[in-house]
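Most newcomers find our protein records easier to grasp once they have seen one. Read left to right, the backbone structure tokens trace the chain's path through space. Once this layout is familiar, the rest of the handout is easier to follow. The record below serves as our worked example for the rest of this section:


***
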Amino acid sequence: MFGKDIYWYGVQAISLLKSGKLHSPDNSPVFHIVALLFRMFGVSDGTLFIFQTLTSIWLITSFFFARYLVFSGKDNPQQRFNFLPSILVFVLGFLYPKQSWALGFLALSFGFYSTTATNKKPSLALAKISFFSSSLFQWVVSGILFLVALWFHPMVALLGLGVFILYQIPEKFYLFIFCFGFFLPFLLPEDPSGRFYSEKENFPLVAAFALAGPCILWDWTFLVFGSSPPKFRRMRKALAFFGFLLLFPVFHFADIQYRILLSLILLNQIYIQWNILQILVWMVSSGLWIFTIFINPNQFRYSYEEMWIPGESMASVPNNGLLVAHHGFCEYYHFQFNKDCLSFEPDAKAISELPKDTEIYRAVYGIRYENLLSSKDENKKPIFSFIKPLGDYQLVREQDWKKYRLSLEKRNSKLLLVAKSWKNPYKERPDFIKRKHTNGL
């Protein structure tokens, strides 16, 4: 399976089928699509693959139709059918399905809006009826599609709103906005528990390069510096300037701006004019993405094949009430074995929900069994009262793991870099995620 979040969709859908509500509060209807597919084809990895494929088909269809609307006027009507789907359609469709469904609706919203903004009537069968060819109808449809995008994924809708605002602002004010964006990270609080804060550890374009390699730099360059037909110049400038503003680190997660960047690159596909140069750009982009996926697949998926045996053993421990593990293992473990798992440091809420007579266990990743076995406290006594070796993973009690991590801090051990990394979660759930569990938003 490709996709680092795909099993989470399965967890949410299974919860819908069993209890009628989501495992984690979320207003997006995308999980209901997965639940419907589970009803039709059964709960399995294969059904999740069908969902990812369906998501990619939706993106291709929506972007094709959006381009059809945009180029439906008398200028270059042949461009309506000139469409080569970017490989990002599949990258987004498989990695970020919820975002992809919302992005498809946003693209259609942009398509209907563009027909009003350029004073062109879409050459559809409905255009024969005066109301359906009117600007009012196109505005209404564009607004409805925007609200559907908001329903599927608020971040994508806010992205669309941001592009629309930049489109309305005269370009002479872009320098002022750029200066504000430059100083914004210094004005934000240094609070990792918030959704927005000054992220000085990761420069967004560098983080994007680390996630996807040179392919993302290639696409970013043509997003910011590429050209388009004159009638779409303002919209292209808005998309390009938004992509340029993503240089400034303002979001909590390092890859949020990366996801926004992918969406902007795809939205740009609506307005480009296909010619020989654009086909060459498309070929290089596709080649770079395929090469990156081939040589570094772990950037796009976890090693799920190596998770079955340790996951099955961990799930069989009788008093294992909650497992703490890295994000990818947690989702796979929860989906395959229907056992609770948390990819954060256990907080008061997680401890209060622990079933009676059970304990919290930790799936340690990246530290050898021998290192854990030989670890001792200040009194020369073994730190771990229970260790179950499972290949790349070691199962220990959470309370013992905290003592071990503290001992690494005192000794300033090199293993601390592994013990406090994504491989072994050490931070509590951020405040905005806690609010989501409390309020559903």
